[in-house]
Design brief:
STM4215-like; 5-stranded antiparallel sheet
């Protein structure tokens, strides 16, 4: 019987999803099924930034996406409140405004991007 072992990058994404879930924040890595109503959290694809003897370190974008335009104070507040919660849950000190486009033909949605650093052990694989 063979067992599929997840890649280190996949394990890093799963670790973020688990941290957010433990903090009571719903997040997904499935961009194809992602529809922020009114806001949602999307975990992006990892970038390998360092490889050691027993671990690999990735940076992963986490987007807080608003399904509404950020044109009123309550809409802006809702997005930034969730971004603050995500930043606290993932121990990330910074975020920046950006946009998210679900497909090449879709209009971009307002978003807040957090770049999270995750280190996973190669021995757990």
């Amino acid at each position: 019987m063979s067992v599929a072992v997840a890649s280190l990058a996949t394990r890093a994404r799963a670790a973020l999803e688990d941290e957010l879930e433990a903090a009571g924040i719903e997040a997904t890595g499935d961009a194809g099924a992602f529809h922020p109503q009114p806001v949602g959290v999307l975990i992006g694809l990892p970038t390998l930034v360092s490889r050691g003897l027993a671990s690999s370190t990735f940076t992963i974008p986490v987007l807080v996406v608003s399904g509404d335009p950020l044109s009123t104070a309550p809409q802006v507040d809702r997005a930034f409140t969730l971004a603050d919660e995500v930043a606290a849950a993932l121990s990330t000190a910074a975020y920046r405004p950006t946009s998210y486009r679900s497909s090449s033909s879709a209009e971009p949605l307002p978003a807040i991007e957090l770049i999270v650093t995750v280190t996973v052990s190669t021995e757990e694989a």
